[in-house]
Amino acid sequence: MENIVPMLIGIFLNTFAIRLIMRYKTLAASGITTDGVIYGPAESGKSVMVRFQTSDGNWITEPDTNRITGSFLKVNDKVTVIYNLSNPQDFMIKTKYTNVLLAGFALAGTGLIVLGLSGVGG
Question: CA-to-CA distance for 47 and 51, rounded, in angstroms?
């Protein structure tokens, strides 16, 4: 019974990773890439504010709702932003850590599921 906890955590991590990977692939395939800057911490304190200019000249200053790379970024860091042309508030920060972190979440989730299924520790 106690093996269900790692399995549930693994399922959560995999679901989180797959959702972000699919969103990232969708934005990367059809989105617009531009330069941005980390403007400051978000009000929640759990992410960062990103500022970038869209292709039509509008400035967007929004929190990074994905929160996967925020802990690696500091105010005034230059970042690459991929955004949805029809909804610029739908964006992701692309850093050298993005793919590694997403793969790490998926691998950790898979490992926990296997651990739970194997009955180790139970």
Answer: 13
Tokens linked to 50: 């990103």
Quick check: pTM over 0.90? no
Give the pLDDT score at 86. Answer: 94
Contact 77, 37 (CB under 8 A): yes
Read off the DSSP letter of residue 45.
Answer: S
Q: Where are the alpha helices (DSSP H) in the chain?
A: 4-30, 98-118
Predicted confidence (pLDDT) per residue in 77-93, tens digit: 999 999 999 999 999 88
| pLDDT of res. 95 | 76
The amino acid that residue 34 corresponds to is: T
Cα separation, 65 vs 24, in Å, equals 13
Q: In this structure, what token pair is assigned to residue 27?
A: 């934005």
- Report the share of the chain in percent with pLDDT over 90: 30
Distance of alpha carbon 10 from alpha carbon 4, whole angstroms: 10
